[in-house]
Amino acid sequence: MSTTYSTQRSGVTLTGVGAVALAFVISLVGAGVDLLTGVGLRRGFAVALVIGAVVAALLVRVKDLYAVAVSPPLIYITISILASIPHANGAFSSKKQFAALAANWLVYGFPEMAAATVLAATIATIRLLMNRR
């Protein structure tokens, strides 16, 4: 009697677009909590960004892992822009002001983006290695 092990996952798997959309929605919920409870994006958004990246990396199809691994910075910037629109006061009309605002997001958001990206990439690497068996 021989036992055959399958490398296929059972359960929920998402396409790359679906997984990135899920990570975006989770991050958007965290941003919403931050914006409803105070001014600006804070730890709620940061934690939601990391959780969204991890959940997406766990649920995405193996062939779409790359999309999830590179998405956290794009999600961060997109939500930062959306959250800034009500308080922009003309910052989006000037390229120079927008560049300064974007630089601010990149500098202060780097820890969250890095943590989310590293965790998603680590999960992706582990899943790829486990899929090779």
Molecular structure report:
- The protein has four helices and no strands.
- It has one domain (16-131).
- Mean pLDDT is 88; it is low at 1-7.
- It is elongated, with a radius of gyration of 18 Å.
- The relative contact order is 0.16.
- It is 72% helix and 0% strand.
- Helix 1 runs antiparallel to helix 2 (43-59) and helix 2 (43-59) packs parallel to helix 4.
- With 133 residues, the protein is mainly α.
- It has helices spanning 16-37, 43-59, 65-84, 95-131.
Q: Topology of this structure?
A:
Layout: H1 16-37, H2 43-59, H3 65-84, H4 95-131
Q: Helix content range of the residues, please?
A: over 70%
**What structural class results from the helix and strand content?**
mainly alpha
Radius of gyration: 18 Å
Mass-distribution shape: elongated
Quick summary of this structure?
The chain is mainly α and 133 residues long. Helices cover 72% and strands 0% of the residues.
Search tags:
133 residues; mainly alpha; elongated; disordered N terminus
